[in-house]
Amino acid sequence: MGVEKIRLIELPKIHDPRGNLSVIETGRHIPFEFKRIFYLYDVPGGATRAGHANMKLEQVIVAMSGSFDVSVDDGFRKAKIHLNRSYQGLYIPGMIWRELDNFSSASVCMVLASDFYDETDYFRDYDGFVKAVQDPTSAS
């Protein structure tokens, strides 16, 4: 799986003059059942978050408020996606390095994850990630 598997998902948007509503139902709107939800907020100006890849974990990242950039890298190709709509989610499969930056003031980033937290599923060293992707026999 590479960066071509990353895609924006349009979430249902119910228009109402009192305020819009979006819904995410597991198994309907995203390509996996989520087991964990977490969110980032109060990110200081100039800070970068993430800086890792997951081996198997799938995620959908949503800009609930404000905006930020998501840089993705499959070890061969890179892309940058700007998120600023609470009714769009960015699907990221396993084996994709991701970094989040350029957070606007008061932004909130929500992440839906396909599994519970497991430190053994993480690549936290970029060079080790690239080596594992480009030469799978070298993975430790």
Automatic annotation (TrEMBL):
Known EC number: 5.3.2.3
Organism of this sequence: Sporomusa termitida
Entries under Pfam families matching the protein: FdtA
Keyword terms, alphabetized: Isomerase
Protein name (record): TDP-4-oxo-6-deoxy-alpha-D-glucose-3, 4-oxoisomerase
Gene Ontology MF: a single term: isomerase activity
Lineage: Bacteria, Bacillati, Bacillota, Negativicutes, Selenomonadales
Domain Sugar 3,4-ketoisomerase QdtA cupin: 5-133
Gene name of the encoded protein: fdtA
UniProt superkingdom: Bacteria
CDD domains the UniProt entry points to: cupin_QdtA-like
